[in-house]
Amino acid sequence: MSATPPQTRVRRPAGFCQHVRMPQRFEHMVIRHTSRIPAPTGPVGQGGSAARQFDAALMSVGFKLSADLLEHLSGLSEKTVVETAARAMETVRAMVGDHVRHNVYFIDFPANVPDTFDFWMRCIAGALGDRALRAGTVAQLRTGVVDLLTLPSYGNYRHTYAEMLAAHDELIAVAGDRLTVLHLGGRPHDEVTALYLALAGSSTPLGEEGLADLRSLAGYCVDGPQPAAIPVRENRAVVNVARLEAGADLLLDTVTDVLRLACALSDGDVSLLEPTRFRPLSRPVRRALLAGLDAVVAAAPGKLADVNAHREAFKRLGERLHPHEYPRRPHAAEVFAVARGDQEARSFDSRVEELLGAGDVTGAVRLLTAAPGRLFRSLDRLLRACSTQDERDAVVAAAEQVAPQVAGRVLLSVREHLQNRAAQTGSGARRVFVNRLGSAWVADDTRPPVPAPERGRLIAVLDAETGRRLPEPGHLLIDPDVLDVALPLSGRATSGGFGVLPRGSLSPVDGELLRFFVYWKESSSTTDFDLSALLLDAGYQTLTWLSYTALQAVGGEHSGDITAAPDGASEFINLRLDVVRGSFIVPQVNIYSGEGFDEVEESFFGFMLRDAEQVGRPFEARTVRMKSELRGPGRVALPLAFLRGRDGRWRAKWLHLYLRGNPNSNQVEGNRVSVATLVRGVVERDHLTVRHLTELMGPRATATTLWDGTTVPDGPVTYIGLQRPEGLHPDSVIVTPENLRALIPG
Q1: Partner of 445 for a Cys bridge, out of 275, 285, 429, 519, CB 3.0 to 4.6 A?
Q2: Is residue 391 part of a domain?
């Protein structure tokens, strides 16, 4: 389907303006998304000394300048280098969570963490020693229950950040510390334009952070080059906001495109999963939206049926647009007549349901060929509805016929679905559901299996069509560690942050000490986040846990409970991987009280890896392997889990899940069964990974090499890996987690 027709021309509403200078925040975006610093410009000079100091400062937080970037900076004036360094340091420190102060409750953590019961007794003794609190504490003791939050020494830092730093030796640098290389980019404007084109033209939905960045970039790049197509509707909505503000043609081809644009104008949910409270709209904007609706319906009256899926949203939008004031837009008025139920517009889905309800599978298949994406998403159901071989053959034949018209993301999503339908369903079988917001739940799987012959034939169709669309890779150079990274088929399969991989990915964990951290800063209400870790055996049964109720376990320590974060607060869990028991480690963040993940001013989770001989502070930026923003629904966050393999080595399995939890008082003890069930569902699901696409690309490659981490070929390559190596030919195609969506064919 075309991304552009019909187009609606609108005038620039009063007050809108164009950017004349590139805002500094775009340089931060380029670094975050690409690990490149846009080539600084300035007077020629002797910047070598300042560049080396910049490199040393970067290494203290786990980053480094590439040889090309160091050389480029060395030829500029010292002032230019210093200014570039200041901006870049601010960006990379925020990327790994080093822009805030991470204090701990127990000043010596992970040393000298007390037994939980002994610690509580000390807190009670302190309260009994306070005349003002003694009577109340005694009264609580008589009831047999003491509220820890009433004890003055519980939940609040007992020392300053500086005092905590003084209690720890400096980190001992080792070869295993993370080192992320920053490369030399092109001209700033070119880098920003390229990033805009990559985000706007993405074939998969973006996450919350990506959409926010796209919205900013779209306004700056509105008069520059545009992607050939914007296939993802949510992306198109935020681009249309910029185009509306600039007076450019809108990209609309469904009535839902206009609804998404209206949601974006009100800072609402462009995915339409959550209701948006529409703001009052100016007259020029109302005219533009009504003109868009009118043009779409005039060109294709059948698209009125799309209103049925979002009736209530269209009703609320109509209250803001006042369509009765625009009699020259009669087709726009029809949209709201359908929403109110005054006019009938039978939906495509209702016609399909009628045929299936009558047992006419072949008729439903014929109808669905007009909507190839819907046909592919319905393949499982259609095959289960078939009663004869002729019907099953008709389903597969229709899929073969329309496969070239189906989006690559849909092809791969259906491929992943079918490969997980090989197992027989039956008593005890469970399905894990994850919506686009990251909320997860489990239900019994009562579906009969998909017939094996048809499942195999469809998988062959999907692989053939996907392989046909993949580019000629030339020399394919692959980092083996990237092969088990899941394909980013959904924007909510990951989250914003550093070192984050899509849900279902597996990545190696090389280190002896594993340390989790959570940081949060409340907005207006007292907020208590609790970092916990659940330890499970091979059968997903609970062995033990670490939390504020269990400060110690075999091989692990908790840094202590912080119960409010007006100035920001951190909690840590330290684990010695060679000592810890069990097969699974599941860190989680529980909201005990206060604001949600989407309400606090800032919140993020991460983990560090260290060698046994390393000491240092509780938080050391150069040891951070991952930092993930906590922004999602529910009151319990499950960022990832750690799995011990048969060889004894640990690997991370990425979850990005949120449980609804309770309004208050969420604890690891109370959700361990539901957490274990969800973890099992994700761990045992066969996710489609980078390995699948490299295997499809392999036969068309001139050569395929697994990168050994040292030498790179002299000529151009298609490199796929976790981090771009130095020394690649300038004409190489480079795919890393930052642009992994580029692997998904259109």
Answers
A1: 429
A2: yes
Amino acid 1: pLDDT: 32
Q: What pLDDT is attached to residue 492?
A: 67
Nearest CA-CA partner of 484 in 469, 505, 500, 498: 505
- Tell me, yes or no, whether 576 and 640 share the same domain: yes
Residue 63's CB is within 10 A of a number of other CB atoms, namely 25
**pLDDT level of residue 427 (50, 70, 90 thresholds):** low
Residues 511 and 658 in one domain: yes
Please report, rounded to a whole number, the percentage of residues in the chain having pLDDT higher than 90.
82
CB 273 within 8 A of CB 437: yes
Bridge partners of 475, per DSSP, are 703
**Secondary structure (3-state) at 731:** coil
Q: Are 573 and 546 in contact (CB under 8 A)?
A: yes
Stretch 490-519: mean pLDDT: 90
* Digit-coded pLDDT (tens) for 277-286: 999 999 999 9
208 and 233 Cβ atoms separated by less than 8 Å: no
**40 domain-assigned:** no
**Domain ends where: 285, 316, 340?**
340
499-509 core/surface letters (b: 16 or more CB in 10 A; e: else): bbbbbbbbbeb
Residue 419: pLDDT over 80: yes
Residues 515 and 662 in one domain: yes
- Read off the pLDDT of residues 660-677 as tens digits, 9 standing for 90 and up: 999 999 999 999 999 999
Q: If 0-12 CB within 10 Å is exposed, 13-18 middle and 19+ buried, where does residue 376 land?
A: buried
Burial pattern 308-339, b for ≥16 Cβ within 10 A else e, equals bebeebbebbbebbebeebeebebbbbbbbbb
Residue 424 has a pLDDT of 53
**Span 693-705, mean pLDDT?**
95
Number of domains in the chain: 4
Tokens 């010292």 found at? 78
**Domain check: are 372 and 457 in the same one?**
yes
Q: Rounded CA gap, 33 and 37, in Å?
A: 10
Amino acid, res. 103: N
For residue range 114-132, list pLDDT tens digits in order.
999 999 999 999 999 988 8
CA 234 to CA 210: how far, in whole Å? 11
| Together in a domain, 507 and 639 | yes
Tokens 């369903």 belong to residue = 425
- The answer to whether position 707 is within a domain reads yes
According to DSSP H, which parts of 159-232 are helical? Answer: 161-166, 188-200, 208-220
Structural domain range at position 464 = 348-469
Task: Identify the burial level of 15 via C-beta atoms within 10 angstroms of its C-beta, where 0-12 means exposed, 13-18 middle and 19 or more buried.
Answer: exposed
Neighbours of 659 (CB within 10 A): 23
Contacts of residue 28, Cβ cutoff 8 Å, sequence gap at least 6: 87, 90, 91
Same domain, 465 and 479: no
730 and 675 in one domain? no
The answer to whether the predicted template modeling score (pTM) of the entire model surpasses 0.70 is: yes
**What integer pLDDT is reported at residue 5 of this predicted model?**
37
